[in-house]
C-alpha cells in the first residue's frame, strides 16, 4: 500500500473552493489519465478473497472505477445515477453532502435478490453518497459485501456513517 500511495499522491490535485467556497476538492483526473496509476488503482480496489456478483459504481467517477473492477473480477456492473438519467427507476435515495443535498437513483430490474455487491467509488468524504448507495442496493434485495474507495478523507468522518460495513481505502488523507 505504501508503494501505491507513493505512486498516487503526486497525481492527486487539491483544488481550493470547488465546487463552492470552503471545500477542498481532490481532483483524480491525473490518476485516471496515468496508465500505470489507473492499473494500480483498479488492482488495489479488488479485495482479495471477496466474492462479488456485481460491482456498483457511483456516478460519475465511480463508473470509471467500478466498470474496470467489474471487468477484472468477471462480475456485472451497475451504475447508481443522479436523478433524470435513467428511463426506469426502481428507487431513489436523498442524502446530505459536505456542501448540500443530493439524490441517487437505481435502475429498475438490474439487481437480483441475494447478489453480492461491491460498492466502488472514488472518494469517501462524509459518507452520504456511499450510505445512500448501500441503502439502494439493499432495498433492491442485494447484499453489500464491502465498500472500496480510492481516497478517504478521514477528517470528514465518512466511515462513521457506515457502521458494521467493510470499508477499504487505497489512500487516507
3D structure, described in words:
- This protein is an alpha/beta fold.
- It has 5 helices and 9 strands, in the order αββααβαββββαββ.
- The protein has one domain: Rossmann fold (3-Layer(aba) Sandwich), CATH 3.40.50.2020.
- A 5-stranded parallel sheet has the order 4-3-7-8-9, with helices on both faces. Strands 1-2 form a two-stranded antiparallel sheet. Strands 5-6 form a two-stranded antiparallel ribbon.
- Helix 3 (35-45) crosses helix 4 (61-73).
- The longest helix has 13 residues, at 61-73.
- The model has no long low-confidence stretch (mean pLDDT 95).
Protein topology:
Blueprint: H1 2-8, E1 13-16, E2 24-27, H2 29-33, H3 35-45, E3 54-58, H4 61-73, E4 76-80, E5 89-97, E6 100-107, E7 116-124, H5 128-139, E8 143-152, E9 167-172
Parallel strand pairs: 3-4, 3-7, 7-8, 8-9
Antiparallel strand pairs: 1-2, 5-6
Helix content: 25-40%
Category from helices, strands and their pairing = alpha/beta
Calculate Rg over CA atoms: 15 Å
What top-tier CATH class fits best? Answer: Alpha Beta
Order of helices and strands: HEEHHEHEEEEHEE
Quantity of strands, as a count: 9
CATH fold-level label:
Rossmann fold
Major beta sheet summary: 5 strands, parallel
Q: Number of domains in the coordinates?
A: 1
Short description:
The chain has one domain (49-172): Rossmann fold (3-Layer(aba) Sandwich). 28% of the residues lie in helices and 35% in strands. It has helices spanning 2-8, 29-33, 35-45, 61-73, 128-139; strands at 13-16, 24-27, 54-58, 76-80, 89-97, 100-107, 116-124, 143-152, 167-172.
Amino acid at each position: 500500500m505504501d508503494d501505491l500511495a507513493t505512486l498516487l499522491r503526486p497525481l492527486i490535485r487539491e483544488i481550493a473552493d470547488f465546487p463552492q467556497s470552503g471545500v477542498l476538492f481532490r481532483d483524480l483526473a491525473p490518476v485516471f489519465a496515468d496508465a500505470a496509476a489507473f492499473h494500480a488503482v483498479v488492482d488495489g480496489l479488488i479485495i482479495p478473497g471477496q466474492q462479488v456478483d456485481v460491482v456498483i459504481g457511483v456516478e460519475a467517477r465511480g463508473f470509471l472505477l467500478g466498470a474496470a473492477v467489474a471487468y477484472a473480477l468477471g462480475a456485472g456492473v451497475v451504475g447508481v445515477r443522479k436523478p433524470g438519467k435513467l428511463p426506469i427507476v426502481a428507487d431513489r435515495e436523498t442524502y446530505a453532502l459536505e456542501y448540500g443535498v443530493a439524490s441517487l437513483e437505481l435502475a429498475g430490474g438490474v439487481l437480483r435478490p441475494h447478489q453480492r455487491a461491491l460498492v466502488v467509488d472514488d472518494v469517501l468524504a462524509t459518507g452520504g453518497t456511499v450510505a445512500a448507495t448501500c441503502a439502494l442496493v439493499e432495498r433492491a434485495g442485494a447484499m453489500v459485501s464491502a465498500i472500496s474507495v480510492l481516497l478517504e478523507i478521514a477528517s470528514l468522518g465518512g466511515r462513521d456513517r457506515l457502521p458494521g460495513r467493510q470499508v477499504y481505502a487505497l489512500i487516507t488523507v
